[in-house]
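Predicting holo structure, zinc ion bound.
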Amino acid sequence: MPLQLYNTLTKKKEIFRSIKPRRVGLYTCGPTVYHYAHIGNMRTYIFEDILRRTLEYLGYRVKQVMNITDVGHLTDDNDSGEDKLERGARREAKSVFSVAKFYTKAFVRDLEALNIKKPSVLSPATKHIKGQIKMIERLVKKGYAYDTAGAVYFAVLKFKDYTKLSGKKLEDQQTGAREGVAVDSSKRNPEDFALWFKIVGRFKNHILHWPSPWGDGFPGWHIECSAISTHYLGQPFDIHTGGVDHIGTHHTNEIAQSEAAFDRPLARYWLHGEFLNLSNQKMAKSAGDMVTIETLRNRGFDPLAYRYFVSLAHYRSILDFSWEGLKSAQNAYRKLLSHTARLKAQSKNKKLNTLRDASIARELKNKFIAALENDLNTPIAISIIWFVISSQRLNPKSKYRLLIDFDRVLGLQLKSAKIPNPPHMVRLLSNKREKARQIKNWKQADALRRQMSGLNWEVDDTPDGPVLIPKRQEMSQ
Ligand code: AMP
Ligand code: ZN
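Done. Tokens:
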């Protein structure tokens, strides 16, 4: 089966065909670096990483480009409010530059903690001011943009099919006028959006600004992604991604700008990751109870257990976050590590690969590929991992190889799995339990399991023998 991806633009699952053979240009909208990323943001980056790894697993060479928003993203997506970076700088009494630098570094650390591959290009918006100005000039020349006292705006009515990505009517689009929000009266249409803000009026003290044909100012948020994606990937490129909140405004505006400027589609496939919710609400940076990777660590969680938790849901379903849910995901993840480590130990110096094994392994690998090819179905992919572990038909070496192979996509660092050595007493109890099981003395076997549990060790019976797994007591709720 070929790879199929759900395309927000056409609102259906489509067979993926790359523009250039075996190569993919992928653009993923990056973070606004005025604060730590929360685990909701990181869910979106994990989904994008799974997409990239799946493409690579299937034999594509992927060029992934991500922007870093360090200017122009206002606290409200509809051109009102203030620049998030300037707000961050005020909050921390630091310069805008040091805030951007600090949170960019923190973001890269979060990527590493979650084993997310670093994009081929990670570029701040402020490094592409010239490109953005050039694009705006083009839009002004072609009659898509107009200059006012405070800003240069994109005239949405000039662009045919402006709402094609969201499939909404223009009046339902969140872009411009939202009830109760003051709209610049010099906009021709309330939905028009800013390409360039001038440092006048409410922005007269804006710290970041550059000269432009329309006077000193700074770019709007959307134009950076249009300029950066086209610069590195050309136009059109293959896949553009982000969270679902980008569909209505940010990506709609990116499409309008880029397609109006170059009369070509911006990207062929648009993929959007659903939200991570906390108490039925979208997790947001402005909310007080925002959870970061650091919060997870402080609560005794391994960031990779969060990656496992995220992979248990399909990227297009809302995922409700709870500490209980994460805890059971962490338990399962630890079991997975223990099983992998045990299989590794069992497969050393053994020549176990038979022809029969190879064909069963191939069959399971095909199932795994089919799950991913079906719009990145990671929950099924994870269930195949467990199926491999419990298989009666495969030897440990084949199992281990399969797990390591699958982990190229799942990114759970199974290769580094190590079982801590159980204490002497636990090993003794486990051996005794095995003997009891051999003579079918289930009562004694259960009693021994309880004794081991009292010492904080669990035992998992597998076709390849018992796996001893340490219980973690220190995790908080
Ligand atoms: P931002 O740093 O706010 O620009 O967001 C970075 C990425 O995280 C974007 O792709 C957003 O769509 C995504 N995002 C924001 N909030 C959530 C959430 N609660 N769950 C999943 N993704 C989110
Ligand atoms: Zn973007």
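Residues 29, 225, 250 surround zinc ion (ligand 2) (CB under 6 Å).
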